[in-house]
Write a structure and sequence with these properties.
Blueprint (H helix, E strand, L loop, with lengths): L7 E6 L6 H12 L2 E4 H14 L7 H7 L5 E3 L8 E3 L2 E2 L7 H11 L2 H17 L3 E6 L2 H5 L5 E6 L2 H11 L5 H17 L12 E4 L5 H15 L1
Parallel strand pairs: 1-6, 1-7, 2-6, 7-8
Antiparallel strand pairs: 3-4, 4-5
Helix pairs in contact: 1-9, 2-4, 2-5, 7-8
Length: about 220
């Protein structure tokens, strides 16, 4: 029996608000690949913890419950889905309560280990390949990715984008929140946000989404 080819991975990492989700979905759609939003998985775990009344600032309590949480991520870039314990939570995980609690949850080593295992299983099942976005894809989850992108943008642009996504929230408050999240993500002990040594940095500050997608698609096609 012929061996199934190993799926190739395009890793898109970077700080909050840099445009990872829109970019990764655009690249996956253009190339006919699967798509995985790992950030949604962390928000899904956070939602489940809040539903159970778990103190998200208590690492031991979080670690004890995480193995019980069932996360299933759909990989269609045009219609990505996520269910937690059988419930479609695509809308709920974008709520303010989840956003406020996801940072401490994401620093718990047991959470990261559990979700990285799920992410690698999803990658292994993708055919012919997958675009995966997050904060530790190129450095931890898929260190052998065909292409690693580190997507950045200045704080003002990131805050404007995130505020627009949230329905016009205060840009200054959003910027402060993003900087706080950057600090937590970059200094956590397990899988901190970092640019992989072999990643290509792309600054999306002055580029349109289409321009960023075009650039990354070209890089993928060159490497393939």
């Amino acid at each position: 029996m012929p061996t199934r080819p190993t799926p190739f991975v395009v890793a898109v990492d970077g700080p909050s608000g840099s445009g990872k989700s829109s970019t990764a979905r655009g690249v996956a759609t253009r190339l006919g690949l699967a798509y995985l939003d790992t950030g949604a998985m962390y928000r899904g775990v956070t939602w489940a913890l809040l539903q159970r009344g778990v103190d998200t600032n208590d690492p031991a309590a979080v670690a004890a419950v995480v193995p019980q949480i069932q996360i299933v991520s759909g990989t269609d870039p045009q219609h990505p889905t996520i269910t937690v314990d059988g419930v479609d939570v695509a809308v709920q995980i974008r709520g303010e309560d989840v956003v406020r609690h996801v940072s401490p949850v994401s620093t718990v080593p047991e959470v990261r280990t559990h979700l990285v295992d799920l992410q690698r299983a999803t990658i292994a099942a993708a055919d012919p390949g997958i675009v995966v976005e997050g904060r530790d894809i190129g450095t931890v989850v898929a260190t052998d990715a065909l292409l690693k992108i580190y997507l950045v943008a200045d704080t003002r642009a990131r805050a404007a984008r995130r505020a627009a996504e949230e329905g016009g929230s205060d840009a200054a408050a959003t910027a402060a929140s993003l900087l706080s999240r950057d600090r937590i993500d970059s200094t956590r002990a397990t899988s901190p946000l970092a640019k992989a040594d072999d990643a290509v940095e792309v600054d999306s500050t002055s580029l349109s989404l289409e321009e960023v997608v075009d650039h990354i698609v070209t890089l993928v096609e060159e490497r393939r």
